[in-house]
C-alpha cells in the first residue's frame, strides 16, 4: 500500500457529495454479530475512519454510544451536519483524529469498529493506538473488541453478476489505484495484514451476501463510481472512456431504467 498511503486523508475531499448520495449502508446482520460477541448499548464504541457517518448513524440508531473519529475535514463536517441531533443528544461525539492518533484517552472505549476504512490505516501504528485506547478485555466484558468491515463488490463467479464483473473490469482498466485500494487490506508487500493485526488465533470472519444491494439509474451508476477515491477526475484522460464504458454497461444490463449493484459485506473481528 505504500504507493497510495501518501494522501489517505485528503483524497476523499472532492468526492464527499457523491459519497453521501451513493455509498451503501450495511446489513442488519452486522449488528446481530456485534450482539453475539457481547457488544451491548452499555459499551462505548469508537468508529475509526467514520467518513460521512454511514455506519456511525446505524450504530447510534441501534442505541450505541459512539465516538466517531475522522481525519478528513470535509467528510467529518458532512457527518456532523447529518448527525447534528445525535451530537446534541450526547450519544455521539465527533473527533478529528487519525487511526494512529485518535485523540482518545487511554483505555477509553470498549469496542473499535472500522467500516470501509482499515485499508487506509498505517496498520502497525493503528494497532499500537487501538491497544492504547481499548479497555482491557476483562473490563469490557465482550468476546471481540475489534471489527473491520467492508462492503465489497460481488463480482466473483459464485455471487456476482455480469454487470458487476463488467463494472470491475472497467475499474481495473481505467482507475489506476483500484487494485491497490481494493485489495490493500488483504496483503501488504506480499504478507497477509489481517492475521498479523489480530492476536494469534483470534481472527474470525463473517460474510453477508446481497443483503444491502443498491439500484441505480445511469446518473446513480456514475455517481457510485465517482464516489471512490480512485476514480479519475474530469480532467484525467481516463475519465471520458470510463464514463462511456459505464453508459455501455447500463445500456446492456438495465431493467426498466435501473441496474442492481450487488455487495458482499465481510466482517473480520476478534481481539488484538
From TrEMBL:
The keyword Nucleotide-binding does not apply. The keyword RNA-binding does not apply. One of its GO terms (biological process) is methylation. One of its GO terms (molecular function) is S-adenosylmethionine-dependent methyltransferase activity. Residues 47-136 form the Methyltransferase type domain. It comes from the Eukaryota. Keywords: Methyltransferase, Transferase. SUPFAM superfamilies: S-adenosyl-L-methionine-dependent methyltransferases (SSF53335). InterPro entries: Diverse_substrate_MTase, Methyltransf_11, SAM-dependent_MTases_sf. Pfam families: Methyltransf_11 (PF08241). Belongs to the methyltransferase superfamily. This is Methyltransferase type 11, putative. It comes from Acanthamoeba castellanii (strain ATCC 30010 / Neff).
